[in-house]
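Lab notebook page, bench 4
Experiment: in silico fold of construct C2
Operator: M.H.
Input chain length: 307 residues
Purpose: comparison with the prior construct
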Amino acid sequence: MESKWLEDFLVLAAQRHFGRAADIRNVTQSALSRRIKLLENWLGAPLIDRQTQPVTLTAAGAKFLPRAEELMALTTLAREEARPPLASEHDMMTVCMMSTLSITTFPRLVAQLEEKGEHFRFRFVNASTTLPDTLDVLRSGAVDFLLTYAHPNVTALQSLHDLPHITLGSERCIPVSVPDQAGKPRFDLRQTQMPVDYLSYQNNSFFASALPDVISGGRFTLRTVYENALSAALLAAARVGLGVAWIPEALLGDDLTSGRLVRAADPAFDLLVEIRLYQSTPRKSRSKARFWRNVSQLAPQPHSILE
């Protein structure tokens, strides 16, 4: 297997269109399709349903997506560790973050800083799939910053009470389902007669701790058919019609406006979470102090970055 096959697959899973994915990967559409086929042959399972428009992941593709993300992260980390440093440790900042925020919030934050003429160097450290382990990484000083969701029900975050943080904004986590032929949710939380197939967050992940109060407020019955710690993996499973899942709104992209997915419940069952940037025990570094100062200026009030 070649690493570029994984990169092709991850871009195609995000774009759901061979043409757009090929443009991003700077290859022809036929070359991209051929490399995806090589990956499928290597795995021994089809990953992409090419009969749908836009293309969707098969059940095997949805299961492989988080593994592909992990493999690419490990490959990138190994490459970075093997390379000689391009900058001093004082110039390079290490950031740990939840996978969803690495796709949605962090790139937008860096883009806003660069629009101000501020440029920084970052080294990413993958967040663990369990929240307590992720928090331990920050407290140990192994990373400089942690970008995370926050919610009162997630008591593990209380262990960071003595560390400085900036609230970057808030986000809704929305229960979604593929529509039926009438445009209604196939997995409808408004009905109470039958159990609803549920795509669940794994124990010790952030949303596994944050969601129970919202879920317990409904009269519906959930039947867990799939568990994963990653929102992107649950979204892929929801897109192919495996069940209902609570997904961060920024990750949904145009799924709701295009009708590929629909709300499975009233907005009262949305989960509202904060997005926070935590700093580990401060170290003497001008670049880190400048980064913190600039982010603070971008977010003088909650929601200012995400509005």
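Observations: The mean pLDDT is 87. The longest helix spans residues 59-82.
Next step: discuss at group meeting.
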